[in-house]
# Entry
Amino acid sequence: MRGIRCAKRLPGVLMVWLLLPGRGAIGQGQTVRLRAVGDIMLAGPMGGMIQRKGRGYPFAKMRSTLRAAADVFGNCECCIATCGSPIPKQFNFRACPDGALALRESGFTIVNLANNHAWDYGRAALLETVRRLHAAGVQTVGAGPNAAAAHRLCILQKKGLRIGFLAYLGLLPALLPESSNAPCLSMASVEAIRSEVMAARPQVDVLIVSLHAGQEGDPLPTARQKAFAEAAIDAGADLVIGHHPHVVQPLEMYKGKPICYSLGNFVFSTTGRGTGAMLDATLSPHNVQARLIRLRLYGAQPQLPGRMPRRRRLWASSRRDRLARGR
Ligand SMILES: [Zn+2]
# Structure
């Protein structure tokens, strides 16, 4: 499964062996490339589109870019299940099982589930989502059969670099409260982030915190987002990847570590709502270099800026010409 493992599933002896100094250590000057994108919604209008055009359709124009990275992270903003029924809330999204394979085939190695739609069809559907993603070869973070599992550190290993992920949902209310014996999501608090990041730090070379928080449509982070993100960095995280506002928020450096407050949308709907960006990062021990690449959310297929359809390119250039001529 592409060098993927989850910390608690390893037998103790194997864990000790993996953590021996120098074992599988990343070579001098070697880096691992991570690409991360924001909200991925495979239900609703996008679900119909996938049924008509095939499961890989929404990712088609980004697949080669994503697959070129060693690790690809995204926020899976829906459950992927056949069971369950809608919990009381305004919007409920459930994608068909093909969604898990589509993510894997498009290069995703890990997705966040600590968000405000993974629980839309209840606890059993949340757990089915986790199982389907794992069966497809996509690791998950931020959800599990109980609170301990939802808060668990997930480690992906590439070129000997141990890349750890923790994830938190920073929105209230918790429609399915955390439980010690039922499927749930990992809810954010400054205290939980601080203690879990500190516990995870010695286990990995690079520590990434996923944060689903903020105000929809707001181009700037809220005080709550900042408090969570800064607590993560203060406690030892190397990178914070945010999502939820549906628009791109700033990539800021805090104490020398990048915080990307919101990557906006990736695959979301056919209406063109919101904006999106891809985080392109190079990882080395305790160090992350990151930049944001704005995406064009054209119809149902996100794409890099230089890959606009010819029709749109012609329209854009003729508009530029008109503006240059003062019309
Ligand atoms: Zn959300």
